[in-house]
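Annotated sample (chain length 300).
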Amino acid sequence: MALIPYDDRDGWMWFDGKLVPWREAQLHVCSHGLHYGSCVFEGERVYDGVTFKLQEHTERLFHSARILGFEIPYTVAEINRACEQVIEAQKIKDGYLRPVAWRGSEMMGVSAQQSRIRVAIASWEWPAYFTPEARLKGIRMQISKWRRPAPDTAPTDSKAAGLYMICTLSKHKAEAEGFNDALMFDWRGQVAEATGANIFFVKDGEIHTPKADCFLNGITRQTVIALARTHGYKVHERAIMPSELKGFDEVFITGTAVEVTPVREIDGMHFQPGEITKTLLTEFDKLVRQKPAVSKSAAE
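Output written by the structure step:
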């Protein structure tokens, strides 16, 4: 199937405060964000025309920007409204939303404090990240040679574009060798996360997940933990060592793109999607399609 390049599509994009034709939303090749990674972004899912956890995602975008040392020149409310504008203009029912902010082209060099902060929001129709067959059977993962960096060596609490290069390298290698994704350890050698998702393990009816102290505490991760506890499951956020992997009964990953996806293999270790994984997958799918409550005053 031929790929449709993202720079040659029909539609509209929000760019620096207004909707512009998709193909006109461009940045210069000398933009600081391209050369030095001074760029933050969000990945958000749209279900039935409504963005799941929009407020939380927008707030995290601003948090990431501050960690990288710049302020987004709009308010959270303005970005939320812009996201809704884009979804309406693009006529998105089930899709993906990508707000992004970066340092522009006014200065070229490591220091670029006077560069203008640019902001864009794009959205497109996008079905499940993995095929229905892969999600039902569980995906195969390979252990990456790349490790998540320590918090004192990189801005690990931000969703910064530059942090994803080792994820790309890890996933490309995994796919080239017949796997769907890669499992990354952290700088200490502890289990961390997948290339774009958090990971959970089940043993003896209880859930275990790595403590998010050097990678993003994902919004989907937080949602699934809350769902699990609502259903009476114990959730342990703790250090998990690679030697523990073979002892787990179930494994699944969570993220905006992957939602809740079972894992059937990690480098020759096999797992079976069980009751807890299936319950959380089903309950998450229900949650994201719940219609937002409308207050009495708003309805009137």
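Annotation: Confidence is low (pLDDT under 50) at residues 295-300.
Annotation: The first helix runs from residue 32 to 36.
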